[in-house]
Amino acid sequence: MGVTPGSDCDDSNPDTYLGAADNDDPLACMQDDDDDGYGDDDPPPGVDPGNDCDDTDPDTFPGAAPNDDATACMLDADGDDYGDATPPPGVTAGTDCNDDAPFAFPGAAEIEEPTACMEDEDDDGFGDANPPAGVTPGTDCDDTNPGVLSCSVWCTDEDTDGFGDPGACVLSDTQPPGAVGNDTDCDDDDIDTFPGAAPNDDPTACMTDLDGDDWGDTNPAAGVDSGTDCDDGDPFTFPGAAPNDDPTACMTDFDGDDWGDDAPAAGVTSGTDCDDDNANTFVGAAPNDDPTACMKDDDGDDFGDENPPAGVDPGTDCDDTDGAVVVCTSYCDDTDDDGFGDPNACTAVPVQPPGTVPNSSDCDDTDGDTFPGAAPNDDATACMTDEDDDDWGDDAPAPGVTSGTDCDDADADTFPGAAPNDDATACMTDVDGDDWGDDAPGANAIAGTDCDDSDADTFVGAAPSDDPDACMTDVDGDDYGEISPAPGVEPGTDCNDGDAAELRCALVVTQDGTFDEPYDQVLEASLINLDFTSLTAVADSGTVLADGDGMTLIVISETATSFQIAGTFRDAVSPVVCLEGLVWDDMDMAPQASTTNNDFVTILDDTSPLAAGFSSPPNVQVMSGPGAGVFYTTPGPNALNIASRAADTDDIVYFAYEAGVTMINGFDAPSRRVGLGYDADQTGATSGSLTTDGAALFEAAAAWAIE
Length: 707
Known about the structure:
This protein has 707 residues and is mainly β.
């Protein structure tokens, strides 16, 4: 019905009046119960209808959701300009998936999804990962913080196999401890169970591979796919492990030679490998020996080891570590290191082991002195003992060893024929190697004639020029014996046995130790005339070599001062010619001499070599010059009286003693002693000198003394 402008068209309803819905028509009488400026589209009679499809809800009106439709009557309770997608009847549906959330609407998370209905409270362009019902979830796990843009799904990986438990996942911008970015684990209590655990069976299926061989367990836990691994506790056991035996059968190949163990665990198919611990041991490993036998060939020469482990067929290779070695030699232990092997301890190898020899001929491998041919002088091949290495066998060896002829096998110098100069076959000792046997050997050896078997220069006949049958020492090989040898050796006449050219030497005692006086010069010339090659002059005040050791002769010159030498040479072992009569008593040769200036002597015994060939009784002048004369005395009864002074034959000037006879005072001559009393007066210019005849008598005395 018509209403007069400005009038109340329904005075029973305070929300109905002229201009009540100014958004529809500011002049029309309309009903606007919800006071949204739009008139009820189904008012009471007499009221103009408006465009408000729900006049009970101020959030529902035409254009309420301009982002959906600028004119359609829609519900927008949350004020986000998108209409409720499930409004009450009569209201046009919009696209707002949750009209109670002002931040949830299509395109709210424009960066993540420009059209999806998501919630983006922090306006960072990413949708809330946990929105209200009906809102599409986004990836923003903290939609109140614009600093957190996108999150990931993280699932607990309890067994640390890299696969997450789908029943224990969270959305987070950071990875939580113990979580992974997937939810694909089919058993998060078992690290060996996950998708693709057994790619050889199925690269994606969830299987168990306990031994890590990429094959799945045939009997896994409930809910896990079964694989084909017949022993999932052994990484060397799986289908096709031994393709040389069977490319598909589940076998064990521990050594990786592609042949299956011939004695595997229960439930595993047997192969043909007789030693599955050695990759070089399998059927056909040594085709040069046998192409079908199970052999070991470590060196790759196609010949089998001749000493393989138990259960492996032996081949012919004696050294399976060296491909170049096929043939071996038998070497035997040589425990005693004598070059002969123990026949009971031999082995065939290509290279000689330490402590072995390539023979088995030792008759006693505990004794290095016992072996075949040890005593070639007895037998070149017999097994004998030669302890002393003299090539003669022990005559009393251990049982089982052939006896030799060596009477003392502990002494290399004792054996048959050791001293051929004594006996060419007798068992003697010859220590010094002079071919004469020791005259005092050990208990088992026969005595020879060598008086000093420690010296090769000492033996019977060593000095034939002295005595061809005497045991003497001749060091210099001049055939004269050492004058002062070791005890038990006969002395010879060589005063210097270290020089073959020096046969005779004399010690001459003068006043000053020189031959400067005419008298001494005649003595010097006479000694040289007698082949004395070494003359040692010593002063009477410093006498040396008192015992004459090594000297052929001692000469006490008349120029020596008597009181200086006194009895120095009484005990000398060398022969002595004493010209100084005033020391005859000190020498125990005769009473002290008297002197006379008579220089003639009378020869008493012209048969003696001491007389120098002078006839008896001519008077011989022995001295000449001022003050010249002779000494005279009365020697002991054992003396050989050769000459006296011319005036009285009882006054003996020239006498001698044989070695060992008693002279005077009960003293025995240690060697030949001669007294020849020449008085030269020792006064320089007035001293006398020896005549030619006097020198001849001196030479005779010296020659006899050393004879």
